[in-house]
Write a structure and sequence with these properties.
about 575 residues, D-Maltodextrin-Binding Protein, domain 2, six-stranded antiparallel sheet, alpha+beta, OB fold (Dihydrolipoamide Acetyltransferase, E2P), globular
Length: about 575
């Protein structure tokens, strides 16, 4: 039977490969020839032309023709129903109700920077600088001091430098809510010149595009240069949600999920009257949001974070269409037919094998899947006996040899939905109860979880590095995370609960969960309220899965962290 299945699959795959080799391929380096016409707003023209030149160099049979047009020109193109364009958020008239389709392909971020040898570095990193304080520097750079900025009584002047770029000046003015004409900063011509100025004046502040001062090779800042943290809410302290300035990667993610002031960052879009479906257009755009991202930094812009790129690629996953006629190509039809036949053969074979084997085997009950129910409450949770549960939704179990296995509980995986990655600590590391233990991730959105016990990590579940399925399907079995050698087991378990006590405690957790989502969705995404709460106030399973990254951040600080 198996031989017959593999034979059919082999024949179909061979036919599929043959058909595929005859059609247009949307992979850089092997593209069917043709021309793509692109319109670009003036500020993106240099970037768009380099994208076009590099893509054509990689694909000699493809010509990307870029035309610089004013903002109104792109809007007109979209009205007529044809074309592909690049436009920045600063020139967003083309995006306001005139474009039926747009996709983020890059980001323009303006940043305040300082010298790492700034005399007040520790205080700056603790408090940050508020928008109001920035306004005072920008309007009166000659009289501003670090003492007034930080409230520490130091009469050290604050000098201000700014890259000579109109977009930087207007963005900073909008952020500080002042007239651009009132900004009297000393201007420099490049990121390198700004870095040199800060080297000579270590207590100064500079403004520039992020891409002009980041080393594109290793994604680090120029030596001795650091981001100046912004106290976004102006409360005189850098809160948890504002701590995004340690390195370019953490900062880029913070910008993506909305932790950075909107006035200082804007998107770069590809726009079109309808979603592009031609092979040439989709192949070009796919390249722009993958290999083409490195060109953004060369023009002072920022590339997208990895998970954002994957999201945009998913949006381009359309059926191949003939670039010439706009109709489905022969190769596409053959491919579709072969895929359908292949699916039917495989499904039929599997069903046949199941029926045959079912006559000889006793079925077993699998551990409940994260998506097995539409709603969930304390009565639908999997609560095995013998485990100790921590209030941060982790569990611990002592093995016969005295080692302790730990993992996440069923409640948490129901909340997050299917996880896509887990970041773990290494064997040999010592931890204390309450230390950060692991990070669970779903499509770039993440939660930090804390250790239920103190000890030394003996081993990590290596299968989770390549597949996180067990974290959802079997959180108390194959989905364990670490084996730990405990150092204060008897003391630690005094702060945990078991079985019935944990079940009773979960009732309060569900009440707290409902209260959290009622508040969070009102603030961030009220349109999702109907998805989270069903009729009768029942919680939707996997409620956090597809919500805004800001809701995940709130869940971290207001739900997980408050349990510690």
């Amino acid at each position: 039977m198996k031989t017959r299945i593999f034979f059919f699959i082999g024949i179909l795959l061979l036919g599929y490969s043959s058909a595929n080799s005859q059609g247009a391929v949307t992979t850089a380096g092997n593209i069917k020839g043709g021309t793509v016409s692109v319109l670009s707003s003036p500020e993106l023209y240099s970037l768009a032309t380099q994208w076009a030149a590099e893509y054509s160099r990689l694909n000699p049979t493809v010509s990307i023709q870029v035309t610089k047009v004013p903002e109104s020109g792109i809007s007109g193109m979209l009205k007529t129903g044809a074309g592909l364009g690049f436009v920045s958020q600063a020139s967003d008239a083309a995006l306001r109700g005139k474009s039926a389709w747009n996709m983020v392909v890059g980001r323009d971020v303006i940043i305040p920077v300082m010298n790492k040898k700034n005399s007040f570095l520790a205080e700056i990193n603790r408090k940050g600088i508020s928008p109001a304080a920035f306004a005072g520097i920008l309007e009166n750079p000659g009289s501003a001091t670090w003492g007034t900025m930080l409230g520490i009584g130091q009469n050290v002047p604050v000098h201000l430098y700014m890259v000579n770029d109109p977009a930087v000046k207007s963005g900073v003015a909008e952020f500080a809510k002042i007239n651009p004409g009132k900004i009297t900063a000393q201007t420099v011509e490049s990121g390198a010149a700004l870095a040199a100025a800060l080297q000579n004046d270590p207590n100064a502040i500079g403004f520039c595009r992020m891409g002009t001062i980041v080393n594109t090779g290793n994604q680090t800042f120029d030596e001795n240069i650091a981001l100046l943290p912004i106290d976004k809410n102006g409360n005189g302290n850098l809160d948890y949600a504002e701590k995004i300035y340690d390195n370019p990667q953490a900062f880029a993610r913070g910008v993506w999920i909305g932790k950075y002031p909107k006035a200082l960052c804007g998107n770069i879009y590809a726009v079109s009257p309808v979603q592009p479906t031609g092979d040439l257009e989709t192949a070009f755009l796919s390249w722009v949001i993958t290999d083409g991202q490195k060109i953004l930094n060369q023009h002072g812009y920022n590339d997208l974070v990895y998970n954002e790129r994957q999201t945009q690629l998913d949006r381009l996953a359309v059926a191949p269409v003939s670039a010439v006629t706009g109709s489905y190509s022969t190769y596409s039809i053959v491919k579709l037919i072969l895929l359908v036949i292949l699916a039917l053969v495989v499904i039929g074979s599997i069903v046949d094998m199941i029926v045959r084997s079912g006559k000889h085997r006793i079925p077993t009950m699998p551990e409940k899947s994260a998506s097995s129910a539409h709603t969930f409450d304390e009565n639908s949770m999997n609560l095995p006996k013998g485990l100790f549960f921590d209030k941060t939704h982790t569990w611990a179990f002592m093995e016969k040899d005295g080692s302790v296995k730990v993992g996440i509980d069923d409640f948490l995986q129901h909340v997050t939905g299917a996880l896509t990655r887990v970041d773990m600590r290494n064997p040999g590391e010592k931890i204390r109860k309450g230390d950060r233990l692991l990070t669970i991730v779903r499509n770039g959105k993440q939660l930090h979880l804390y250790a239920p016990v103190s000890g030394t990590i003996i081993a990590q579940n290596k299968t989770l590095a390549t597949s996180t399925t067990a974290l959802n399907n079997a959180p108390y079995g194959e989905g364990w995370v670490y084996t730990i050698e405990p150092t204060s087991w008897l003391r630690d378990i005094q702060f945990m609960t078991m079985a019935e006590k944990y079940h009773t405690w979960l009732k309060d957790e569900f009440t707290r969960l409902k209260e959290f989502f009622t508040e969070a969705l009102t603030v961030h995404t009220p349109e999702y309220a109907h998805v989270v709460m069903q009729d009768g106030g029942e919680l939707q399973d996997n409620i956090l899965a597809d919500l805004d990254p800001r809701v995940w951040e709130d869940f971290q600080t207001k739900f997980i962290d408050k349990s510690r």
